[in-house]
Automatic annotation (TrEMBL):
GO molecular function: asparaginyl-tRNA synthase (glutamine-hydrolyzing) activity; ATP binding; glutaminyl-tRNA synthase (glutamine-hydrolyzing) activity; transferase activity
Top EC category: ligase
Quaternary organization: Heterotrimer of A, B and C subunits.
Matches recorded under PANTHER family: GLUTAMYL-TRNA GLN AMIDOTRANSFERASE SUBUNIT B MITOCHONDRIAL AND PROKARYOTIC PET112-RELATED (PTHR11659), GLUTAMYL-TRNA(GLN) AMIDOTRANSFERASE SUBUNIT B, MITOCHONDRIAL (PTHR11659:SF0)
Species of origin: Sphingomonas ginsenosidivorax
Gene this protein is translated from: gatB
Keyword Cytoplasm among record annotations: no
GO biological process: one example: glutaminyl-tRNAGln biosynthesis via transamidation
UniProt name for this protein: Aspartyl/glutamyl-tRNA(Asn/Gln) amidotransferase subunit B
InterPro entries: Asn/Gln-tRNA_amidoTrfase_suB/E, Asn/Gln-tRNA_Trfase_suB/E_cat, Asn/Gln_amidotransferase, Asn/Gln_tRNA_amidoTrase-B-like, GatB, GatB_C_1, GatB_Yqey_C_2, Gln-tRNA_amidoTrfase_suB_CS
Keywords noted in UniProt: ATP-binding, Ligase, Nucleotide-binding, Protein biosynthesis, Transferase
Length: 489
């Protein structure tokens, strides 16, 4: 896919081996084992049930929707769906974990092996991709949150997140560079958002990654890995891979050993710091949760999950390319689910695919970037865009006039036809009016007319520009070109 990523050390080149454990908050109306709400930004400890607070005698009850969303996610990456799975208790003490254990899945996860295809060059139709293996997806409950900045000598606990449903999506160690790690995380986020199983808002903590990194000489066995916890952006994940790999190479070349440990990333200093030694599964004393029966999925449930899946990014991208849209435009249009839905609505309104893609990726996306808006809050709807492009297609508007109309639409929210009528922006194909202006332009530039007729063909563009300028951009460019060719001889 790309040239092999290596770190050049004093003793030679080192390869990087990366695996990601992504924690994705499940889109649901309640927590994994209680009916408490999960809205972001609520006041501390206002979304906590007796189950979440681990009050004596409280028993967990699985949320069917959380299980459904995890199964749909597994199906979207063509993973093995395990009809029989089981919850385990992961035992450890921490102040934000009121139960003293986390309900998770270790030995029998809900979803088994799958894969995600990535590419590092969306502009190149011939670029080869890479398939990244997914080892498993299991569901588990989140812990609460310690708040250290509320009191000078004490830490407070907010249990709003306690019991929130997470999918832990564990990749195989198939990633070999910062760029591949970034591409994988972006693709996974896109799939989750298409499926609707996670909103992917990393800045809000609903999707975060634990980054496992090791280094080795080419052909050697896997090195000792470190795990950098809770990295909350694609850019930071890529930085962790780069900086942690460099640190490990420096340690090894200085004669040291890599400790299997958990680390934290400091984005201000762009470095990882040791947090604690890395525990193994046996350190957590996993055992089957005695309060929860195994999950058994029947055919009807699985069929409903599969039938509810939307068209996914790769399939949508292939469909767009089959419509004549360029590889790059198809990649841009399918990267975010909101953009793809907006564009599909534009196509459904009857706009030709190539024209729709050109206008959306240039004019619309350019305007949204300029105004700091996303497509979900676009002031111009697909129906309004279709009306505008229809006026271009039927000759009512030239390209330059369409830009003017679009700017007014952005400001006012009015439809294209209303803007054209109110502002008098209709394109003219009146040959008499255009011929009159051409005659005036030629009379004012007699020297350039002589030069053109003497063989300077490139001056033709000058006459087109002068004519369009004199007519305020309202002349039909095709008619202007034809009439100028005749007049100039």
């Amino acid at each position: 896919m790309t040239e092999t990523y290596t770190i050049r050390g004093e003793t030679g080149d080192w390869e990087v081996v990366v695996g990601l454990e992504v924690h994705a908050q499940v889109t649901s109306n309640a927590k994994l084992f209680s009916g408490a709400a999960t809205a972001f930004g609520a006041e501390p400890n206002t979304q906590v049930s007796l189950v979440d607070a681990a009050m004596p005698g409280m028993l967990p009850v699985p949320n069917r929707e959380c299980i459904r969303q995890a199964v749909r996610t597994g199906m979207a990456i063509e993973a093995q769906i395990n009809r029989w799975s089981r919850f385990d208790r992961k035992n450890y003490f921490y102040a934000d974990l009121p139960q003293g254990y986390q309900i998770s899945q270790l030995y029998h996860p809900l979803v088994g092996e799958g894969a995600i295809d990535i590419s590092l060059d969306d502009k190149n139709p011939d670029a080869t991709g890479k398939r990244i293996g997914v080892e498993r997806i299991h569901v588990e409950q989140d812990a609460g949150k310690l708040m250290h900045d509320q009191h000078p000598t004490q830490s407070y606990v907010d249990l709003n997140r306690s019991g929130v449903a997470l999918m832990e999506i564990v990749s195989k160690p198939d990633l070999a560079s910062p760029a591949e790690a970034g591409a994988y995380l972006r693709k996974l986020r896109s799939i989750l958002r298409y499926v609707g199983s996670c909103d992917g808002n990393m800045e809000e903590g609903s999707m975060r990654a634990d980054v496992n990194v090791s280094v080795r000489k080419a052909g050697d066995e896997l090195g000792t890995r470190t795990e950098t916890k809770n990295v909350n952006s694609v850019r930071f994940v890529m930085a962790v891979v780069e900086q942690e790999a460099k640190r490990q190479v420096e340690v090894l070349e200085a004669g040291g050993k890599i400790q299997q440990e958990t680390r934290l990333y400091d984005p201000d200093r762009n470095e990882t710091r040791s947090m604690r030694s890395k525990e193994d599964a046996h350190d957590y004393r996993y055992f089957p949760d005695p309060d929860l029966l195994p999950l058994e999925l029947d055919d009807a449930f699985l069929e409903e999950c599969r039938a509810s899946l939307p068209e996914l990014p790769d399939a949508k991208r292939a469909r767009y390319e089959a419509l004549g849209i360029t590889t790059y435009q198809a990649a841009v249009l399918t990267a975010e689910v909101e953009a793809a839905r907006w564009f599909d609505a534009l196509l459904d309104a009857g706009v030709k695919p190539a024209a729709a893609a050109n206008w959306t990726t240039s004019e619309l996306f350019g305007a949204l970037n300029r105004t700091g808006k996303d497509i979900a809050n676009s002031p111009v709807s697909p129906a309004q865009a279709a009306e505008l492009l229809g006026l271009v297609a039927d000759g009512t508007l030239s390209g330059s006039l369409a830009k003017q109309v679009f700017e007014v639409m952005l400001e006012t929210g009015d439809g294209a036809a209303k803007v054209v009528e109110d502002r008098g922006l209709k394109q003219t194909s009146d040959t008499g009016a255009i011929e009159k202006v051409i005659a005036e332009v030629m009379a004012a530039n007699a020297d350039k007319v002589a030069d053109y007729r003497g063989g300077k063909d490139k001056l033709f563009g000058f006459f087109v520009g002068q004519t369009m300028k004199a007519m305020g951009g309202k002349a039909n460019p095709a008619v202007v070109n034809d009439l100028l060719k005749t007049a100039l001889g």
